[in-house]
Specification:
With 68 residues, the protein is mainly alpha-helical. It is 54% helix and 6% strand. The protein has a two-stranded parallel sheet. β1, α2 and β2 form a beta-alpha-beta unit. The radius of gyration is 14 Å and the shape is elongated. The protein starts with a helix and ends with a helix. The mean pLDDT is 91.
């Protein structure tokens, strides 16, 4: 199984390649990690790797995570 760091690196590589194909600067797009159904520990691991934007689809799931 790959680590969060490996998966994040692969996603960023795919994003950069997509930007190149579209003629956009990689810095012009933003990665938003979807944290739906994920434990806070997974979000903390991504935060430690530099991810700062997280998305939740339901407020009742987001509020406890925000507190932590």
């Amino acid at each position: 199984m790959s680590t969060a760091e490996d998966r994040l690196s692969a996603i960023r590589e795919r994003m950069n390649a997509a930007c190149t194909r579209a003629g956009r600067r990689p810095g012009a797009v933003r990665l938003i990690a979807v944290s739906k159904k994920q434990p806070v520990s997974a979000m903390q691991a991504l935060y430690a790797l530099g991810v700062r934007d997280f998305g939740e689809s339901q407020v009742q799931e987001a509020l406890p995570k925000l507190e932590q």
